[in-house]
Design brief:
The protein is mainly α. It has one domain (about 1-118). Helices cover about 55% and strands about 10% of the residues. The chain has 3 helices and 3 strands. It has helices at about 5-45, 80-90, 100-110, and strands spanning about 50-55, 60-65, 90-95. Strands 1-2-3 form a 3-stranded mixed sheet, covered by helices on one side. Helix 1 (about 5-45) packs across helix 3 (about 100-110). Keywords: Coiled coil.
């Protein structure tokens, strides 16, 4: 194999490695954005306040984010940590209008569902 052919071969390897590097950089960027979005969702959920709407005795209570317009019996606001505990302990239904379930899911998925109490 002559020098020209080896040079061509090495250039092809360099081009392939550059392509692979670019692909990996894009994957890392995408994963970093996903991690940041999940952390933001957890932080938003931690800061949120919740209320539990009491329903009929044979029906599960409904968890709302504070200020939800569909909460017909607003109660005292509770912290995110208490909302997580209630979801674990009681048969609650999460309101889909205020997306309380997505917030609680974000908290439950973080650190095995433990919250720092904020």
């Amino acid at each position: 194999m002559g020098v020209g052919e080896r040079l061509k071969s090495h250039r092809a390897v360099v081009a392939w490695l550059e392509y692979q590097l670019a692909q990996e950089r894009r994957k890392v960027q995408d994963l970093e954005a996903e991690v940041a979005a999940r952390e933001q969702a957890r932080e938003d959920a931690r800061r949120a306040r919740y209320t539990v709407e009491t329903t009929w005795p044979d029906m599960p209570n409904v968890l709302h984010r504070s200020g939800c317009r569909y909460n017909s019996s607003p109660q005292t606001n509770i912290r995110a940590s208490e909302a997580v505990q209630r979801v674990r302990d009681d048969p609650l239904v999460c309101c889909t209008a205020c997306d309380a379930g997505a917030n609680i899911t974000a908290l439950l998925s973080a650190d095995g569902g433990r919250d720092d109490g904020t």
